[in-house]
Amino acid sequence: MASTTSPPPSTDTGDHPRHLLRGFLSPEACKELEFVHRSCGTAGYRPSVVSTSLPHLAATGCGHLLLPFVPIRERLRDAVELFFSCEFDLFIEFTGLISWCKGASIGWHSDDNKPYLRQRAFTAVCYLNDHGKDYKGGILQFQDGYPSSIVPVAGDVVIYTADNRNVHRVDEVTEGERLTLTLWFTRDSAYDEDPKLLRFLSQMSLSCEPASQNYIPVPASDNMYWFAYDESGFDIRCARVHVLGFNFHMNSDEDNTSVLPAEDDPIELLGKQLQLGRGDEVFHKIFSNSLHALQVSFIFCCLHVVQFYYWKAPDLALRREQTAVDAETVCHPIIHPSRGTELRLPCDHVLAETIFGTYNNAGFAFDWNDFTVAAAMWKNYSEELKRKLSTRFAILAVQ
Ligand SMILES: O=C(O)CCC(=O)C(=O)O
Ligand SMILES: [Fe+2]
Predict the structure, then answer these.
(1) Could you tell me if 142 and 234 lie in one domain?
(2) What is the 51 CA–ligand 1 centroid distance (Å)?
(3) Which of 68, 69, 163, 392 is the most buried (most CB within 10 A)?
(4) Does residue 186 share a domain with residue 278?
């Protein structure tokens, strides 16, 4: 007999104005934002949370990574204005990628519930991965109205008023990493995020030379990457690389003694030139950034490449299987045995795996040739975004 249970309504236009937009973001858009976040995120504003704000991207040499957000922000603003009947009325106050890791939760609240948050009028939360598949817990519950709870599905977006008509909470995440893109909208132009972003972008484009290199990330201060958990913790950059099966090595082309850290602060090595290894092998490419006075590293660059590899790896593996490798494009990655160059960093690997999970079951075989191709793809991707950003800047400048 057919079930008579109908799905819960996805809209409340009464006392608790909110709306669930299913499939608002494509799977590809979700993956791209995940790549940005896993490459750039820092310790978040609450315990067990990692976040990537747009000003942070702009300020750390990743202004080009704002571009994937541009059409999404505009579409979201349109959707919010349309649903809440306030066309041409809203500014975006905050845009950020947030991961809620094991132990993260938030109790009953409304999003404008502090004096310094009163400017917030509406919220949009976009889910970038799936409850059940990617993490456990983390269900969004509303105190009144419908839908009364949201089980996150990648691509879905919930929009609601930021006031006390939509008191809500997020259940504790008990396993995995729950990823969202969260935006707040305001009617007060003094809180508009855009002028702030443009200021950061113009400062960065003036300070980053030569132009061909300025898509290379510039790390923020080390303490921003420290993820504290109970009595332990880890540097987010080390943990991300570790859970993907890689490790950091000293630059073997250098006189190694010159890159040894101060005894008491090995994390400083993350600001120096590095290589990436896997098991007993070290990849020849040196990740470094000699342009920055404070020993800026390419560690983020390593992360970008690693994350990019995992983003694109299934495509690469498919391409490898389907096509005979063209003699012109064949890659020759140079791999060295590790010779004890692995960096000894204060990173609790067990904790890192507990918090970020591992990619051991990603369903494809690792291949350094693919990694080399991915590194080139990452560079093209970054350069292309950089070009688009320059064009946009030029258009804005003449407006
Ligand atoms: O991620 C969610 O589902 C809601 C998050 C939330 O309530 C907040 O950030 O204020
Ligand atoms: Fe909230």
Answers:
(1) no
(2) 13
(3) 69
(4) no
